[in-house]
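Usage example:
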Amino acid sequence: EVQLVESGGGLVQPGGSLRLSCVASGFTFSSHWVTWVRQAPGKGLEWVATINEDGSEKYYVDTVMGRFSISRDNGKNLLYLLMNSLRAEDTAVYYCVRGRANIWGQGTLVTVSS
Amino acid sequence: DVVMTQSPLSLPVTLGQPASISCRSSQSLVHSDGNTYLYWFQQRPGQSPRRLIHRVSGRDSGVPDRFSGSGSGTDFTLKISRVEAEDVGVYYCMQGSLWPWTFGQGTKVEIK
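Running the assembly step on the lines above writes:
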C-alpha cells in the first residue's frame, strides 16, 4: 500500500524550532518530488515547500523562506521539514504529499504558542 | 503569485442534483511544456485532502465518474453530475504550473 506517515509535530514556543519527518512506503520514494502542504485550523490549504527527486532543487513559499528547510534521505525513504524561528501563524496541520499531490499523509499538528 | 479564485464558496445542494464549482486563475496555467497543471481536491470532514482530478480533466483512480473537470487557460470547472451524501466536504482547486503552487479558497458543499 502506498503510504506517507508524518511525525514530529507538537507544541513549541514562538521563536522555537521543530523538525517534521515523513516516512514513505509502498513506492519508489527516490523517483518522486515530495512536498509539504499546511492547513491552519479551520482554514484552507497552503503549499509550503517542494523538493525534487535527488534533493538538488528546492522551492519555498515566501512566508517561510529563510526559516524552513526541506530535505530528504532517499536511503531511508524519509522527507524532513526543519522549521526555525516559528511564529504563531505557522500553527497548522502539516501534510506530506507525493508528486503532484496524488498521495497525502494524515498530517501532523504544529502549535506555536507561549 | 498566481491567485486562484473559486466560486461559490458555499454550495448547498439537493441529493441527486448536479453541482458545479468554478475556479479562475489570475494568469494562464499553460506550462511551457504544453500541459495545464490544474487539479481538484476533495476534503471530507476530519480527513486529509484527496485528489479527484489531475491536469484539468483526468479523473484519478477510484474517483466516481459523476465527478468531471473541464476548462482551459484561466477558467476551470468541477462538476458533480448527481450529488451523493458522501460528497459533503470542501473542494479545492490548485495550480502546479507556476511557483509557488497555489490553492483556491475552497468551496464547502453541503446537503440542503
